[in-house]
Model the fold of this input.
Amino acid sequence: MPAAIVVGVVIGVLALALGVLLGYTLKVRVGKGQVEAAERRAAIILADAEAKQRETLLEAKEEAIRLRSQIEAEFKGQRDEVLRLEKRIASKEENLDRKVEALERRQSELTSQREQLEQQKESLQELRQKQLQEIERISGLSAGEAREENLP
Done:
């Protein structure tokens, strides 16, 4: 029986070796399958992350464009308001300039009229004085003497 024991032992050893080999192969295949599955899951996660990144970037660009448009509209409104105010101020300045010119012309006219009135007043005083002198010469009386004769 020793040969049968040896054959049994050899078969056992071979079976053990075959079992270990099959176990190792199965483990490698299962491990390889798990690695492949993990790689597929990682690829999906990475693709999702890249899609989310592109979506977020697109949203950020759209928000930047919207904000820029809003700011440009506000600046345009402010520029339009400044231009409107500048035109209004220029118009008021022109009106003030016209009024100042009119006042200066009026003042010049009044000054000229005053000078004419002063000249007329002087002329009238001279004429009155001459008439008074002529009356005194014709009557032979002075103004004081003429007053005394007319009083009762």
